[in-house]
Amino acid sequence: MDAKLLEILVCPICKGPLEERGQELVCKPCRLAYPVRDGIPVMLQDEARILGNDEE
Hints:
1 helix; N-terminal domain of TfIIb
C-alpha cells in the first residue's frame, strides 16, 4: 500500500491510526482489521474483522 495513503487513512470508528498487516489495515484501539482488496482498502465497519485474543 502507498505510504502516503496510509498516512491519510484513519479508522472510521475512532479516527485512530491504522497499521498495515498483510492484506489488512489494523486499528489497535478498536481491535478491528479492515481488508485490502486488489490494493483498495475497504473501510466499512461491516467488512471489518474483529481481532482475536492472540492478535495484537
